[in-house]
Structure formats: C-alpha cells, structure tokens
Amino acid sequence: xxxxxxxxxxxxxxxxxxxxxxxxxxxxxxxxxxxxxxxxxxxxxxxxxxxxxxxxxxxxxxxxxxxxxxxxxxxxxxxxxxxxxxxxxxxxxxxxxxxxxxxxxxxxxxxxxxxxxxxxxxxxxxxxxxxxxxxxxxxxxxxxxxxxxxxxxxxxxxxxxxxxxxxxxxxxxxxxxxxxxxxxxxxxxxxxxxxxxxxxxxxxxxxxxxxxxxxxxxxxxxxxxxxxxxxxxxxxxxxxxxxxxxxxxxxxxxxxxxxxxxxxxxxxxxxxxxxxxxxxxxxx
Length: 284
Ligand SMILES: CC(C)(COP(=O)(O)OP(=O)(O)OC[C@H]1O[C@@H](n2cnc3c(N)ncnc32)[C@H](O)[C@@H]1OP(=O)(O)O)[C@@H](O)C(=O)NCCC(=O)NCCS
Description:
Distance between the termini: 23 Å
Number of strands: 13
Strand content: 25-35%
Number of helices: 7
Shape: globular
CATH superfamily of the largest domain: Gcn5-related N-acetyltransferase (GNAT)
Bound molecules: coenzyme A
Strand order of the largest sheet: 1-2-3-4-5-7-6
CATH topology of the largest domain: Aminopeptidase
Number of domains: 2
CATH class of the largest domain: Alpha Beta
C-alpha cells in the first residue's frame, strides 16, 4: 500500500449536507460521467440503512464509497454500489482505506458479507479487491448494466464479476494482517496452467491462447494491464479481450471453479487471475 507519508488521509461519514453534494463532483471526475448519482439519493440512502463514506486528503475530498443493505432470499448482506478515488490520488492506498473503514461499519451493523460488481478486465480493481482485500468471485454476469455512458465504460458490454468479501473469513483476516500486499506472479507455482494467455501486438498485448479443457486444481487467466489504454488504441482488440475472457470465465465458473486471487508481473505489466476448484467456502 502506497499512502504517501506526508499526506493525511481521513475516512469518515459526511459531516454536512454540502459534503454529500461534493460526491456528485467526485463522480464526474472519477468516472467522467455527466449523470452522477444525485446527492439526494445519497442522503436518502445514507440516512436509511445505507452508508456513505468519504476520504479526505489534507481536508480535500478525494474519494468515497456508497452502499446499502442487500438481500438474496433469506440472506442479508451489505451491497457496495460505488467506490471511487480521483485520478490524482489513485494507487496510494485510499481505496484500500475506504474499504477497511466500510468493513468496520458493516461488521458493527451485524453483516459479515459485502458484495459488489466490477468489470473483470479492470486490473487495478482486481489487484485491490482480490489481491489486497481477499474478496472472491463465483459469478460472472454478462452485460449486467446494459450500456453505461461514462468515459470508463462506454462502447463495450458491461460484463461484471459479483465480488464477495467475507469480512471475517481466514482469507480476509490474513490479508488485513499482512497490510493488503498482493501477489507477484513469481509467488505462484509455475506449473499452474494458463486458461488464457496473451501475446505482444505492437505496443499492447492481445488475448491469444484460450484453453477451455483444463482440469487442474488451479488455473491462471490473464487480463490486460490497462484495458482503458487498449480501448482508446483499438476498440476491436478490447472487445476481443472481453469475448475471450467471457468464454473462459463462463466455462470454468460454471464447472465450479471460483476466482480466489490475483497476481501481477509488474516489470512486464501483466496481470493474472487465479482460479481454484476449492469448494469449501467456509475456509474462504
Ligand atoms: C479502483 C479504485 C477505487 C482503487 O482505488 P485506489 O486508491 O487507486 O486503490 P489502492 O491504491 O488502494 O490499490 C490499488 C492497487 O492496484 C495497484 N495497481 C495500479 N495499477 C494497476 C494495474 N494496472 N494492474 C494491477 N495493479 C495495479 C496499485 O499499485 C495498488 O497496489 P499496491 O497498494 O500494492 O501498490 C480507483 O483506482 C478508482 O476510483 N478507479 C476508477 C473508478 C473505478 O473503477 N471504481 C470502481 C468501480 S467498481
């Protein structure tokens, strides 16, 4: 986690009405959206069982997360709808601090699970959610939101992982204890086979070899280091990444694998999900 020592980051609930309105501006800056979730929804949600947390760096708002109670049959959990950090404060551990504070509040409210969706092709999100926080994914949803017209999501289908963060699981407690350190590819057994691997194509990598017939306990699935850059450069290549990863995740998740971790090869700017056949979710 790279919180720069001279920066003081405070994570707390909004203390006044204007702070709720600051979250509209944060959304414009983070997602490039012209249609932020309005402050009145954040206010109503926060005051009725939801939770809005904001991060302030030296007193200036730089990020927030917002969620509410969710229910699936008899099971109740907390559902996080938005987490965002402004570009100039990203990669310094602010997202991690917001999630840790959210975990504290949600545990106090009596829940032991937080769920959210995210785009499986967003490598930094995967590093934070699976790598640093210890969330897992068992479900892949095709085009979950339909078309989203913001700068991060426009122009290709909004496939999502449903992330599950089991707040008191051994996996999560271990991650918190080690300060949210994520894996390097060199930490992963080199015999673990690749269900999807890339090859260099000009200044980016393209999804290349796909294998849907593997049976081993663990699998690696590569994703792009920076899907946003690929989208800008060549939308067809980004769509190809979407289609190939969709096929791979659909195949293995429907066969009972789950996504349990994430590893990077930082010098090569490569990113890999780790899938496992482990079915004992009590140890997750
Ligand atoms: C996703 C987001 C909330 C994360 O917040 P953040 O403050 O940047 O996250 P953190 O700094 O705690 O963690 C990010 C980690 O990813 C690493 N990282 C950065 N770019 C990466 C990449 N391309 N691939 C893999 N890891 C990457 C960082 O180095 C950091 O790990 P470290 O602490 O071990 O160095 C923030 O980047 C953001 O707002 N993004 C845009 C909006 C968005 O996608 N929101 C989530 C929608 S579900």
